Amino acid sequence: MSNQGNRTLTPTANSLADAIGHSEHRGMLARLTNHQTFWVFMAAVLACLALSLLTDTFATERNLFNVSRNFAFVAIIALGMTAVIASGGIDLSVGSAVVLSSMTVAVLMSAGMPFWIGIPAALAVAILLGAVNGVLVAYAGMPPFVVTLGMLSVGRSLAMVLSNNKMIYQFGPDHELLLALGGGSTMGLPNPLLVMVVLAAITGFLFKWTRWGQHLFAMGGNESAAKLTGIPVRQLKVSVYVFSALTAGITGVLEVGWLGGVTTNLGQGMELAVIAAAVIGGANLAGGVGTAFGAVVGALLIEVIRNSLILLGISTFWQGAFVGSFIVIAVAFDRFRSVRQQG
Amino acid sequence: MSALRLEAVSKHFGAIHALSDVSLLIEPGEVIGLMGDNGAGKSTLVKVIAGNFAPSAGEIFISDTKVEFHKPLDAQRAGIEVVYQDLAICDNLSAAANVFLGRELTKQIGPIPILDYARMRIRAGELFARLKSETRPRDLVKRMSGGQRQAVAIARALLSDAKIVLMDEPTAAISVRQVAEVLNLIRNLSDHGIAVVLVSHRMPDVFQVADTIAVLRRGRLVASKRAANSSPEEVTGLITGAIEFA
What is the interface pTM, i.e. ipTM, of the complex? Predict the structure, then answer.
């Protein structure tokens, strides 16, 4: 059928399009250096090298252990945040999801509940918080910024109500187990780091190899197109906010074990570091772009810089300035690149 | 056998008669240029065919079978694909991903269905080859020309084995050279026996590609004749009302 009666009007002269096309298929190195993730990774490696030479405290086992654990907490939530940002949304409530889930596990276990009830309950609370975010965004059509900003306040307030704003540091019969989960290590590596690696692998798989991931990026790229092709965008949005809250919930449970106690200011301001990690790792705040590996690398760079400020004796008051500037610089970098591509 | 037959289709919104008594017959592989001034009812007619609006009166037949559409999905299942003016395409995905968006091919790894990129690329490549488009399945759509983007949108229609493709102003926002590409794509669809309803304001494009010209004026079909037997002057007259009927 395809060979008969082709009433071609004009020969398709695609030489220009071809030339453009060929220039896109450059060598491996050129493609690698075109990725923001690559440069961020190089920056993190350089920072590590510089710190090892400049200080004699950075490359110690104890410091590296701490850095890797701190970075794992931000990285785990950055995975969820990358999903939200790539879908075209934002989640400001992750810090509150952290404190609410850790407070849930703490309150239940200090009341004598076992480990295997406390943790699922904490994760369920986080999922519920994410579902409320998602339903308000997807079905009520409210802007994610407003919904999750509200949840930021509600979540922390609920944690205060739950604990009566007291610090909890006794976790009942399974006390040791909970502390070992977040604070211990397996094969010399801190547990949170291992959890982060597993979650990053799962997230990367979901993004690249499942219809869920494909639809998520399609929705972030062009939501009306996604709708027209029959993708269930509402359910998808709910699932994205649930995923984000779940990563925060997992972090909350692990942080209890690491700190050995919970106060209601846990995770305060964490959304900023997490968003910075995702954005530095290449997630585009306009939606449609982001990778799991990028989120991890972004979190790594932030933590290394933060650690270096401490080791170099710079006041911790400067940390907010650095993290905040990083977000702005990463977005500016992205703007600059897209302008250059168009021009 | 006709691809699409409308019999006395009317659509009114309250007192406003957007379409009155429109009867139209489209053969398989026929390209019909649907013309008319703004507000003449072109969009309404396209939306009735695409299942966005149910007609107030009249009947629609596809391949001589009477159909009733309650939602766009019904029309899609019956073999009608719409290529939207603002292109229902995601810039951040590859051409192949766009062609298969919402109906991705998967393979099972144990209990988990994973995307079958290889099969989607091959299949998309075949569709582009059928369209004689040089679009490469792996390329990101955001780096493509307007013509290539149209090829992606049209490949979606081919994938679903559409019998009728509705195109709303496909040449409105692209360069002259790309217009030629799109017109070629339309001819290719027609060569595959797919009927094309082309809504356009651009007289030269319509005359270059359409077998039949249909003109709507104030909700009525005032002409439906072979393009070869008509002329741009006549069609202009029909659109404006200078010529009553043809």
Answer: 0.77
